[in-house]
Design brief:
heterodimer; A: 293 residues; mainly alpha; MetI-like fold; two-stranded antiparallel ribbon; 76% helix; 1% strand; B: 375 residues; alpha+beta; Rossmann fold; OB fold (Dihydrolipoamide Acetyltransferase, E2P); 2 domains; 6-stranded mixed β-sheet; 5-stranded antiparallel β-sheet; 8 helices; globular; binds adenosine-5'-triphosphate; binds magnesium ion
């Protein structure tokens, strides 16, 4: 009994300490007003006069978010970038996962290693490496010039294209692995059965392979979409001044404007936007667990 | 021979539906099907019988189009089908592992093949309902495969392969997971379907009784070779080898040497100091040729006293009695140590057994009871 209570308490404690408490703090800051102080907002928590403290909180910052069109444009632009890069990751990741699952058994663990290998180096270093590749004097342009495909260097770095490249590159393993897992589990005789019943190879792929890897596709898409939406490092390093992403706006509010309350409001709204896909993702995982029994 | 007996294999005019011509299949280093030639006729119900790993599934997969023979031809209605892909063959297969689509309901699984054939929607629905009724799956139509029992899954697989009413239906151990009663009913159902639809069936089974019940012919395989292909009664009564005799049903094998005694009458010299065993044989044996006498237990009569007019009679001692309900099998030890099984039908209820352990008894059989085999 005791043991079970402890076991259940551990994840709840984890959730409380690492998610709920910080969230409440951020939420409280978002209801405060900015001030020239340390910390740079008022009111600070006062237990002695809790009533006045509460009365000083308001939703002003949220109203501000709707008034300046920078914010909703940034949200929309982030959604668009996250959505499109998820599609691109899927378009690249699915064939890779499929090829891995079709490979002879002895190659699979090696291929799996190769997919995970980039995680062994720091994410930042890898993004900086992309700067070196994509810049006007970078490897890509040098190669294309050398090969005679182009005569003037392409401007890729500091554009949205570079952001897409960065996001797709970074999150590709998150797409490949869950899809590979579902394809790997699939019984090859199902494809034979489909063919036996008159399906062509391609027909069998769409009618059997794709539906059976649905859970992997959904899991992969969420694993890419959710972090990509709030992505900050990639747009600020690879993107240009015109790349609008909410993660970057958030950073600028916090550190350039030192407007913690507005930044917190941006974060809370971002979380609310993310809650829908996160819940959908959870449901998918649950369905998968049930069907897998 | 009367007109209505179904025996196309005896008619040289008859064209086979399927013709295996010297088909060999090898995987990497091992030969799995070894130079098999076999004709399967329209409306036939052929049972493939053989020990595990002898190549039954491989034969089926070559027919369905999932394996290409290493050499040889396979013809369907006179046309070579080896280059034809599986989805272009009028052949359906029920897989040994069922291979049901886990993301589709029972209904959609059965409809899968029909939907690929440009059949109008209402016809598909009618056909699926028909199949559900046949396999008694009506209640489960809306369930997914993981929500039904093993036997029900097997029936779904059967229904799915039957739905398209193919020319040739391949069933790889279709009834293994069913209980005895449902199994028997399904067997009769299969025969019924076969008779109404005229579909040709090839069925793999490990159950000899099943093969006997449903098959028009039985093909006995061993290590990739066809040992004998014949009607069930001929397989049982006139096996062509000790292997077949031993594989199908219970049999006593007595080894000895042949001594010619008449036109087709032989005496078997099987033990020193014992009378020769008399047997007729259509197959010719040379004087002194080593041979095997195969006798089914039910053809041996057991009695307390020495039978007077028996063609063959030996004395022994009861070692063991196996009661099987409808039958009793007596294991009788002969003086040389050889054990012979004799079977009697239990025609009366609760009648006291005439013999018990350690009783000295006589076993007797006629000249035509056994069959003489070279190997
Ligand atoms: N793809 C393959 N690669 C290599 N060997 C194979 C392959 N498929 C089958 N075999 C071998 O071929 C032989 C015959 O296999 P098959 O599946 O036809 O046996 P079976 O008669 O159906 O046996 P069972 O009654 O156990 O189902 C076996 O020894 C098997 O190991
Ligand atoms: Mg098999």
């Amino acid at each position: 009994m005791m043991r079970r209570a402890v076991l259940i308490a551990v994840p709840y404690f984890w959730l409380m300490a690492l998610f709920l408490v910080p969230f409440i703090i951020v939420f409280k800051v978002s209801l405060s007003d900015t001030a020239l102080a340390i910390p740079p907002y008022v009111p600070t928590l006062e237990w002695r006069d809790f009533r006045t403290f509460l009365s000083q909180l308001d939703f002003e910052n949220y109203i501000w978010l709707t008034q300046d069109d920078l914010y909703w444009k940034a949200y929309l632009s982030s959604l668009k970038i996250a959505f499109l890069s998820t599609l691109m990751t899927l378009a690249i990741g699915y064939p890779v996962a499929y090829a891995m699952a079709c490979c002879p058994e002895k190659w699979r663990s090696t291929l799996m290693m190769l997919v995970i290998l980039p995680f062994w180096t720091s994410f930042l270093i890898r993004v900086y490496a992309w700067m070196g590749i994509l810049s006007n004097e970078g490897f890509l342009n040098q190669f294309l010039l050398w090969a005679g495909i182009i005569s003037t260097p392409l401007t890729i770095l500091n554009t949205n294209t570079a952001v897409y490249i960065g996001i797709v590159y970074t999150y590709l393993p998150f797409m490949i692995l869950p899809i590979y897992a579902t394809l790997d589990r699939m019984d090859a005789s199902l494809l034979e059965a489909a063919e036996d019943l008159g399906c062509s190879r391609i027909g069998a792929f769409w009618l059997v392979t794709v539906p059976l890897s649905r859970n992997g596709i959904i899991a992969g898409c969420f694993l890419v979409f959710i972090p990509a939406l709030g992505e900050f490092v990639i747009p600020s390093l690879l993107g240009g001044s015109r790349t609008l992403m909410i993660g970057k706006v958030l950073w600028e509010e916090f550190f350039n404007n030192r407007d913690w309350p507005v930044a917190s409001a941006v974060a809370v709204v971002l979380l609310l936007i993310l809650i829908i896909p996160i819940m959908l993702f959870q449901r998918n995982q649950q369905n998968q667990a049930e069907a897998g029994r | 021979m009367p007109e209505d007996v179904f025996a196309p294999w005896d008619d040289p005019e008859e064209k086979p539906l399927i013709r295996f011509q010297n088909v060999t299949k090898s995987f990497a280093d091992s030969i799995v099907i070894d130079d098999v030639s076999l004709d399967i006729y329209e409306r036939e119900f052929l049972a493939l019988l053989g020990p595990s790993g002898c190549g039954k599934t491989t034969m089926m997969r070559m027919l369905a189009g999932f394996e290409t023979p290493t050499s040889g031809r396979i013809e369907l209605s006179g046309k070579n089908i080896v280059p034809l892909p599986a989805n272009k063959r009028a052949v359906n297969m029920m897989f040994q592992s069922y291979a049901l689509f886990p993301h589709l309901t029972v209904w959609d699984n059965i409809a899968f093949g029909l939907k690929r054939s440009k059949m109008p929607k209402d016809k598909i629905a009618a056909r699926v309902e028909e199949m559900l009724k046949l396999t008694r799956l009506g209640k489960f139509a809306g369930r997914k495969p993981h929500q039904i029992s093993g036997g029900q899954r097997q029936r779904v697989a059967l229904a799915r392969s039957l739905a398209k009413a193919p020319k040739l239906l391949l069933l790889d151990e279709p009834l293994g997971a069913l209980d005895a009663k449902l199994r028997q009913e399904t067997q009769f159902e299969l025969v019924d379907i076969q008779e109404t639809t005229g579909t040709t069936f090839v069925i793999v089974t490990h159950d000899q009784e099943e093969a006997m019940t449903v098959a028009s012919r039985i093909a006995v395989m061993d290590e990739g070779k066809l040992i004998q292909v014949d009607t069930p009664d001929r397989i049982y009564e006139s096996p062509n080898s000790v292997y077949v005799a031993d594989f199908i049903g219970d049999v006593n094998i007595i080894e000895g040497r042949a001594r010619k005694q008449g036109a087709d009458l032989y005496g078997i010299d099987w033990a020193d100091g014992q009378r020769l065993l008399a047997v007729t044989s259509e197959r010719a044996f040379t004087e002194g040729q080593p041979c095997h006498l195969a006798i089914r237990p039910e053809k041996i009569t057991i009695s307390a006293d020495k039978p007077v007019h028996a063609d063959n009679a030996v004395q022994g001692k009861i070692l063991d009695i196996a009661y099987l309900g409808n039958l009793s099998t007596y294991h009788v030890e002969l003086p040389g140590g050889m054990i012979i099984k004799a079977q009697t039908a239990n025609t009366r209820r609760m009648s006291p057994r005439s013999f018990t352990w350690e009783d000295a008894v006589w076993l007797s059989w006629t000249v035509t009871a056994g069959i003489l085999l070279a190997e």
